Amino acid sequence: xxxxxxxxxxxxxxxxxxxxxxxxxxxxxxxxxxxxxxxxxxxxxxxxxxxxxxxxxxxxxxxxxxxxxxxxxxxxxxxxxxxxxxxxxxxxxxxxxxxxxxxxxxxxxxxxxxxxxxxxxxxxxxxxxxxxxxxxxxxxxxxxxxxxxxxxx
Length: 153
Prior knowledge:
Blueprint: E1 11-13, H1 15-25, E2 32-34, H2 38-41, E3 50-55, H3 74-91, E4 92-100, E5 104-106, E6 114-116, H4 117-128
Parallel strand pairs: 1-2, 3-4
Antiparallel strand pairs: 5-6
């Protein structure tokens, strides 16, 4: 794998390349983005080795992904989120930053009731050891279920 330390541009690598780099050098290069399923990639990383995590997990709304079931029960979805959050906490450096971008989930496609994922997962973050320092709310028209939401026009 080529070294990303000599460039300011992010270097993309596969989980296999990252694993080989960790085996041979003890770490991946600076500015490296590992592209893969987080539950396959995170266990490869050493404890407290990541400066920044930015993730937008699947929203559990039945979207088709290769190799991922995005239409789970809420309990199964929370279990998935819990595993991801625990692994993120384990690999994040003590002074690292974690950005969790989320939207809404649904109990099922027919209930027509939404569950804000940040509210659904808040206790999972607390249980992992995270502390909420700030919250960013996107205010815009559009997105999931837009046709079912209130409109002002």
